[in-house]
Design a protein that fits this description.
Length: 725
């Protein structure tokens, strides 16, 4: 009996431990935390009609609870965008936008506005790798003379969801799964793809995410987009809706997927180191700053709703007006107080700029301020990296954790008998909101135009180059192959057919889905400019800050080594000498060179191109080094330019081992094939006069191909896959 009693007691304890455990997969209705059943968890309460989407209402207790609970889930790491880095810089106008706004930062061409820019990934923790497939944050804080202006954007112009109330669901689905905290820093898992299928509005963004945009070569080589729709108000009180654009001077370039995966392990800090190195070397990254503008009266003239964050504004309909330039020119002095404590708010705007009824923006405005309080405390805006550079004062905002500003005086309220700290009139620069008329009913809904989810995804896919389409198919296949729930990958194989039947059939074959036989939505073949990243090559060919490896071994030719190194460095490339060991490598003429790295400490994935100089014994020495041989093979498979001269030519030829790639075989000849440039001769072959597609010299041709980023034809013709196999 004693044993039985004891057993009962233990069972009772177990029951007490389990009383707060619920099964999420059951059929119990969704409720708030205080027990009322929720009828619509997907739309914030707002003023709306079939033809227009109005502002959200603060009275929505269901949305407020959902967002507030989500905002406070993580302390102190950011819930999203935890992995990032940043730098300081400046913003300069070269053309005033006074016809559209009164904002000084966009009208005063004599100003130089200081700024801080933070780049980031979205899904992973602070300890995740830089080069995972993910959206990249692109958040700019401009310290203007009228106060701080934050553009909290991404490197992709659209977003997954239309209504901010879904944001907790989106991030929960893409974050590690709750039962095992797997995976980290990637979207290849069941829950994310289940969410994508359940919300067809994600389709457009999902295609951008599966494109090469999600594996950028560098933070310095990706676009920035404000994503949300704001308003600009001019001195006559006229309103234009606006989207903000940042286009990099160096072009828009990406890694290839196998390379991105390897860099995750070889150098997980690759992007942040790349940014810091460029700035330290004085090669300051620059972006053109542009506006897309729609007059208020034209807002309803489009087949889509311009306030829908899952849609782009086609440049053919709404051209980009470039008016300024952003430059990053100073690295942080200490990471934690300047980068980790940097905090951004979509609601930080200055006079002349205002919000719109973009339902994603309206929710972000509510959420961002709240989440910064959770991370950094009530006085987060007082931190040095966050506080404005213009005079600021509030006699009401007081106390709270980590308060360090001291406000002297005897009153802390307004109005007061001293008229202390009075508000500013509009003429004095006081902020006023645009007096927008509202009409509609109080409802949980969006306008009718928000219901179309596939047209722009089709346009995006149709506008990609053939190589980008190939990469998109490989990306979908890789991601869905990691999903082990047949429901997930079979349904997604079918969903892809709404954009491209051919793509859906390729993916279904790879991942095990049922092969679709017809499109669920006809593809009209419409294309648009500005969607393929191959359109964003620099205006002039440049190898500025490109990382180029020179492989050497005992007996190398010092003359061709030194000449090529000087030629490349003179054009701003970062040149690294890679040898068998770092105690020194001896040239055939006796000079000793200490390599920057040795073969087993570095990999080809961390460089944009490779050159191998000649030398009587170099081919034999390199052929005995497995890493050196694989270096050439892997570089070719990753579509990178390769160059070699004299005795290095047979070494390169042997590693590639493909008849389709021609290499120079006779003296005084230069041959280029699939971005592999080889030749026989002396160092004069490395003289540079003209860089372009018709360049004749070996160094000229090599530099031209480096400036093109990759030789995509290798992959289109199957050579890269052949040699990788």
């Amino acid at each position: 009996m004693a044993a039985a009693a004891n057993s009962k007691t233990e069972d009772g304890k177990f029951a007490d431990m389990q009383k707060d455990t619920v099964e999420v997969n059951g059929k119990q209705n969704m409720t708030t935390d205080y027990g009322i059943k929720i009828s619509d968890p997907d739309h914030w309460l707002r003023v709306a009609s079939n033809s227009s989407t109005g502002p959200m209402l603060l009275e929505d207790q269901i949305a407020r609870e959902k967002i507030m609970r989500f905002d406070h889930e993580r302390i102190p790491e950011r819930v999203v965008h935890a992995r990032g880095t940043g730098a300081f810089g400046t913003f300069k106008l070269f053309e005033s936008a006074a016809d559209f706004t009164t904002a000084g930062v966009l009208t005063d061409t004599s100003r130089t506005t200081p700024l801080f820019l933070r780049f980031s990934t979205v899904q992973g923790s602070k300890g995740s790798a830089d080069t995972v497939r993910d959206v990249r944050g692109f958040a700019v804080k401009m310290y203007t003379s009228e106060g701080n202006w934050d553009i909290v954007g991404n490197n992709i112009p659209v977003f997954f969801i239309q209504d901010a109330i879904k944001f907790p669901d989106l991030i929960h689905s893409v974050k590690p799964e709750p039962q095992n905290e797997v995976p980290q820093g990637q979207s290849a898992h069941n829950n994310f793809w289940d969410f994508v299928y359940m919300h067809s509005e994600t389709t457009h963004m999902n295609y951008w995410q599966m494109s090469d945009r999600a594996i950028p070569r560098s933070y310095r080589m990706m676009q920035g987009f404000g994503v949300n729709t704001y308003s600009l108000i001019n001195k006559e009180g006229k309103r234009h809706f606006v989207k903000f654009h940042f286009t990099p001077e160096l072009g828009v370039h990406s890694l290839v997927w196998d390379e991105a995966l390897k860099i995750c392990g070889q150098d997980p800090d690759f992007h942040r180191k790349d940014l810091m190195s460029a700035i330290d070397a004085g090669h300051f990254p620059k972006w053109k700053f542009g506006l897309q503008l729609i007059p208020e009266e034209k807002l309803d003239d489009f087949e889509f709703d311009p306030l829908d964050a899952t849609k782009v504004w086609p440049e053919e309909l709404v051209p980009i007006r470039y008016i300024g330039e952003m430059e990053l020119n100073r690295n942080v002095d200490e990471f934690f107080p300047q980068t980790e404590q940097a905090a951004f708010c979509t609601s930080h705007i200055v006079p002349g700029i205002d919000f719109s009824n973009d339902p994603l923006l309206q929710g972000r405005n509510f959420s961002y301020f709240d989440t910064q309080i959770s991370r950094l405390g009530a006085n987060w805006e007082e931190l040095p990296v966050n506080r404005p550079v213009c005079p600021y004062m509030s006699l009401v905002n007081r106390d709270g954790a980590a308060r360090h500003r001291i406000t002297k005086g005897t009153v802390n309220y307004w109005p007061n008998r001293f008229e202390a700290n009075p508000p500013a009139t509009p003429a004095q620069g006081g902020f006023t909101s645009y007096p927008e008329k509202q009409h509609g009913i109080k409802t949980r809904a969006l306008s009718e135009k928000f219901k179309e989810h596939y047209n722009q995804a089709q346009t995006f896919y149709n506008s990609l180059s053939e190589i980008e389409k190939m990469h998109l198919a490989k990306a979908f296949s890789f991601e869905l192959d990691h999903c082990d729930d047949p429901i997930v990958y079979k349904r997604m194989s079918e969903r892809i057919s709404a954009v491209s039947l051919d793509l859906a059939q390729k993916v279904a074959k790879n991942v095990g889905g049922d092969t679709p036989t017809k499109s669920s939505k006809p593809n009209k073949g419409q294309k648009a400019k500005g969607l393929s990243q191959l359109e964003y090559m620099p205006e002039k060919p440049t190898i500025l800050t490109r990382r180029i490896a020179i492989l050497i071994a005992d007996g190398f030719d010092y003359s061709t080594y030194l000449t090529m190194k000087e030629v490349l460095e003179a054009r701003g490339a970062f040149v690294f000498t890679i040898g068998a060991q770092r105690q020194g490598v001896v040239a055939e003429t006796g000079q000793k060179v200490v390599p920057d790295n040795f073969f087993s400490g570095m990999r080809s994935t961390l460089f944009d191109a490779t050159f191998v100089p000649g030398g009587k014994h170099i081919a034999n020495a390199l052929s005995k080094n497995g890493v050196a041989k694989f270096w050439i093979t892997e570089s070719f498979a990753h579509l990178k330019p390769i160059a070699g001269i004299n005795e290095a030519v047979p070494f390169i030829s042997k590693q590639i081992g493909l008849d389709e790639v021609k290499v120079a075989k006779s003296p005084a000849s230069i041959t280029e094939s699939y971005g592999v440039v080889t030749g026989h001769g002396d160092a004069t072959m490395l003289n540079v006069e003209k860089i372009g597609p018709d360049s004749k010299g070996l160094a000229e041709q090599f530099i031209w191909h480096v400036s093109r980023h990759r030789n995509w034809q290798r992959e289109l013709d199957g050579l890269a896959d052949q040699i990788a196999a």
